[in-house]
Amino acid sequence: MKRIPESIWSKCLTVNVHPGILPVFAGRHPQLRALADLKRSYTAVILHSIDSDEYDVGPELSTVLVNMTERDRDDPNAFFERTRLIGVYMVAAFLIGKGANAV
User: Any idea where the domains of the chain sit in the sequence?
Assistant: First the structure.
């Protein structure tokens, strides 16, 4: 697999994932659990329509956090269904290289 070229991921929306929100979802995926356990905010990259069979996106988060707000804590299942339908992947920035510093 090839690395995602900067021409693709540099245009992707970047969001901050707050540690206070991560624990709501962390039990669902080991990478989220690890981030939550660090108790720090990390910059995350949302990759729209990236084919994970073609590109190495790091450990894929199949049920992902996308623009999650405190409001989404009330109904995490609906939030996961909504993001799954969009087909968006979130990968912690350090997994793909640039912008890897904790906030």
Answer: 2-96
